[in-house]
Write a structure and sequence with these properties.
mainly beta
Length: 202
């Protein structure tokens, strides 16, 4: 699928057989891969400077450039949608992950916010923690949020109580941690000039 030459696809989220694609200066695209040889694409929304996207069940959240999140209810599928709800969080947002009715959001100041998205029409920030460094990508494992921090390594935040997230600890291997993945008790992360790391997080 080719997007307009003035736009660029910058992030994606796989949800079953549907891939949602955030398009900078172009909107939000859904791609049906039930026939992987002949995927079909439809625009969810044609406007919006989207930089990241996360899907969970019938819900999708897309991060606009700067500070806004747009939430979409896809339970009634049609060709075009308007956001079901939106929220401004302040700062420059970096990443968003939607899981179990909650959106976890990082910004460039090191903050991580938790947004209650159980009612997509009225999302509300219910939790917040300010972390040292510059937060980048997020990954969720059970009741922990792992934060790839560009200046302070890999950080682990306990979100059992979503109104009061708690920093459990961090590991700084040197370099700039940009991405992390967690499976079971093992975290994998890329740390720039410090290389690729595998750590036990039990």
């Amino acid at each position: 699928v080719k997007v307009d030459d003035t736009s660029s696809a910058v992030d994606l989220s796989l949800n079953g057989e549907i891939i949602y694609v955030a398009v900078r200066d172009g909107g939000l695209l859904s791609v049906d891969t039930s026939d992987p040889i002949n995927p079909s694409a439809n625009w969810v929304v044609l406007t919006g400077d989207y930089r990241s996207v996360s899907a969970f069940g019938n819900s999708v959240v897309a991060r606009r450039y700067r500070a806004q999140l747009d939430f979409f209810d896809l339970s009634q599928r049609s060709r075009f949608f308007s956001p079901t709800g939106s929220i401004e969080l302040g700062g420059t947002l970096e990443d968003v992950v939607l899981q179990g009715g909650y959106a976890y959001v990082s910004n460039s100041s090191g903050d991580v916010s938790i947004v209650d998205a159980t009612q997509l029409s009225s999302p509300k920030r219910i939790g917040f923690i300010s972390l040292p460094g510059t937060s980048a990508a997020l990954t969720i494992q059970d009741d922990s949020v792992f934060v790839a921090n560009e200046t302070d390594g890999l950080q682990r935040v306990d979100v059992v109580n979503k109104s009061t997230p708690v920093l459990l600890g961090s590991l700084d291997p040197g370099g700039s941690v940009q991405q992390a993945a967690v499976k079971g008790d093992v975290a994998y992360f890329a740390a720039g000039t410090s290389g690729f790391h595998v750590v036990n997080v039990a």
